[in-house]
Amino acid sequence: MRAFLLSIGSLAVCALAGCTVGPNYHRPAAPAPPAFKEQQPPPNPPDGTWKQAQPEDAAHRGKWWEIYGDPQLNSLEEQVVVSNQTLRAATERYLAAQEQVRVARADAYPALSVGADAQRLHPSQRRAVYVPGSKTNYGDLVLQGQATWEPDLWGRVRRSVEAAKANAQASAADLAGVELSLRSELALDYFQLRGLDLQKQLLDSTVADYEGSLELTQRRFHGGVASDSDVAQAETQLRSTRSQAIDVGVARAQFEHAIATLVGVPASSFSLAAAPLNLPLPAVPAGLPSQLLERRPDVAAAERRVQAANAQIGLAISAYYPNITLGGNGGFESGGISTLIQGPGALWSLGASASELLFDAGRRHALTQQSRDLYEATASDYRESVLNSFQEVEDSLAALRLLDEESRSERDAVTSAERSLTISNNRYTGGVTGYLEVLTAQTAKLTNQRSAADITTRQFAASVRLIRAIGGGWDASQLPRP
Q1: Model confidence over 370-389: pLDDT tens digits?
Q2: Is residue 227 part of a domain?
Q3: How many domains does the chain have?
């Protein structure tokens, strides 16, 4: 007994200090440029505005939407975590991945079981080992426990735990990615809706101006100064613009319904009051490309899956080594309940077993090679996610730069169109020109005003996409340590 316990202790020490087969993990190399091509030196943000999250930054981590200073948007964003069903599903998947870590850890400990057995026996008197005079009817009561343990000598359990941990962290990063995607989609839909409110405000104001132009043309027609054709052109312009104002409502309703779904509210019971988009566009510093690898949850998830794939190689290699199992059981056995738990009724056994697979027709080799191939595929997916993240940031930075130039040019065009319309109205009122010139100037002004409003909406959309592309204030330091 003492020798067996010493052997168990020795194996336990070996298990704790045992080797872990398979390659140790190193993050795959991924190219990172020194700076973004489109990035300009970022201005220093004023106190209280959102900035890139750092490990010590707790005030604004994640709440990137507050940079826009819109209370309605802030309120909607807070409802995403509470009510969105997609986010709830991602949360449950993360919790399931956490439980898998506990499942993997459990293999490192002995399995203990206890049982009881009660029988009334009548052995056959014709059996080969029958002893004349022995009892032919008797009871048998057994109460015993059993323990089995497979020491983790080769690191199979440790590699399983490593893979489960990495997968749990990948699931946590997936959850952060889903949340970022939903919040950015909400912000995009919100600004698109507010942009349509701006278009509606512009069209309603233009309709009022066109009503005044029609009234002036009708007076001039009744006074014999203008022709019936001028009146018809003014009526056509007015009714066409009214139709455009009504048509804006179709797209607005769709964005409103999309926002309702994102905040987990039935579309039939959700509405947002009209509020034109007239907010100042905030500056969003993109940071350094090397920091992007830590700030993007999708990149972090891909990198964690590379480590899980690496651990699977060690699991496959551990199959080449022998399996060693320790076991024992003990308890009491008696023919009666009154004498069950007594010294003479005690029973116990201890043992150990070892087995080694000698031939499997190349199965272990194939599984090991498969795990190596899957590791290379996962590493390639990680590098691809890194390249895609750089592309998305460059796209958003380029969009913001070019839209800023376009916005300045369009503002000049609107100013020129307003001046042209004023001149045309004066010329028409003075009888110098026909209504067609006024009509052309009105169309040019409205077209440029709507274009300017559309550019404003696109600037806010590009700003949201940039924040999403740089991770939305998330940081890999937020990954849990299962």
Answers
A1: 999 999 999 999 999 999 99
A2: yes
A3: 1
